[in-house]
Amino acid sequence: MSLDDHAEDLASDLGVDKEEVKADLENLVEYSVPVDEAKQSLRRKYGDGSSSSEPSQVDLADVSTEDSNVTVTAKVLTVGKRSIRYQGNEQTIHEGELADETGKISYTAWEDFGLSAGDTITAGNAGVREWEGDPELNLGESTNVAFEDDIDVPYPVGGDADLADLEPGDRGINLDVQVVEVETKTIDGRDGETEIKSGVLADESARLPFTDWEARPEVAEGATMRLEDVYVREFRGVPSVNLSEFTAVAPLDRELAISDTGTRMTVRDAVETGGAYDVEVVGSIVAVRDGSGLIERCPECGRVIQNGQCRSHGDVDGQDDLRVKAIVDDGTGTVTAVLDAERTEEVYGGDVEDAKAQARDAMDKEVVADSIRERVVGHEYRVRGNLSVDDYGANLEVTEFERSEDPPADRADALLAEVAE
Ligand SMILES: [Zn+2]
């Protein structure tokens, strides 16, 4: 298509003089503006009804944090409702994920557009903001939302999920769960003292901590229920389920086959979750790290100190304690298992007084860690606990630490049987 043809097109679309449009177009193209972009800008200049006032239509995969505003056509995967305090006012927002065939993206709707999971919409002039490095869409006052014919997307619609799949930031999620632990607490909320419930939920896939900000009576130990519209936050490095005032809670008419063991995972999969509650790995202890055995803690802050010096509190009278930091390797990756004093006593075979006596006799504290090394390094353990992952690595705060009960020979047989199938 020649520039002349483009000019003719535009002129008839816009109902303006062709020569005038052509001069503008030539001017822009001379400045290396691509023809399509030049036409868009002339449409805006000559006022082409509604479509020109909106940013161009993009695929979700192409939305970037560099964009300020975009127009997208997408299917609503999830809708979560939440009340937040924004600039001093209570405001109800809707949030979740949108998808088209190229990808999906999180959104926050600052007005009630009446969105439901499964709707296909065109969001004209949606704002783009960055959230933890990824683009997110803001549907606000200046966004036009139009409902469209259904499109197919390669993602599940609706928020049904298993606990094992949850990640911090998920919203509008539905779960079938059992309450395995719960306690009521009084906290200082934004409207004064308020009661909340917190504890642990389980389903067939995993266990996760939860908070019910409304302290519902039906959220009781042993209760099985369907939760609709919960959101997920990070709590001490693991995903935590939050029940808001908008969460619907209904009794479940079926039994859940929840297990009372941790979720068995490979170290690699566990670390890839970015933090997991109550997981179990089986691997060999390849080393016991420095800072294990007989250690000293600051009496003020509880942090481990060196030579009676706390980084925050300076010269302090250290308190003796026992700890193990053991590196577990299962062939897929490594994680540091951190054992508290009680579990360290079991591994060491003595308490803090025994450790002090051993250190005095040898005139060296390190002998305690050495004794632990002799007992655990090179052996296979089943390690259960809560995993947190940060810039310094992956730590498993241990709740159970047991020599693996499967003798290597059995495992080899099982592996051979699997291969033979
Ligand atoms: Zn301190």
Automatic annotation (TrEMBL):
**UniProt keyword Acetylation present:** no
Alphabetized, the UniProt keywords read:
DNA-binding
Task: Enumerate the GO terms in the molecular function aspect.
Answer: DNA binding
Superkingdom assignment: Archaea
Annotated GO biological process: double-strand break repair via homologous recombination; response to ionizing radiation
Renumbered to this chain, region (Disordered) spans 39-65
The keyword DNA-binding is annotated on this UniProt entry: yes
Q: Which Gene3D superfamilies match?
A: Nucleic acid-binding proteins
**NCBIfam families named among the record's database cross-references:** PRK07218.1
PANTHER family per the UniProt record, alphabetical: OB FOLD NUCLEIC ACID BINDING PROTEIN-RELATED (PTHR13356), REPLICATION FACTOR-A PROTEIN 1 (PTHR13356:SF10)
What is this protein called in UniProt? Single-stranded DNA binding protein
Q: Which organism is it from?
A: Halorussus gelatinilyticus
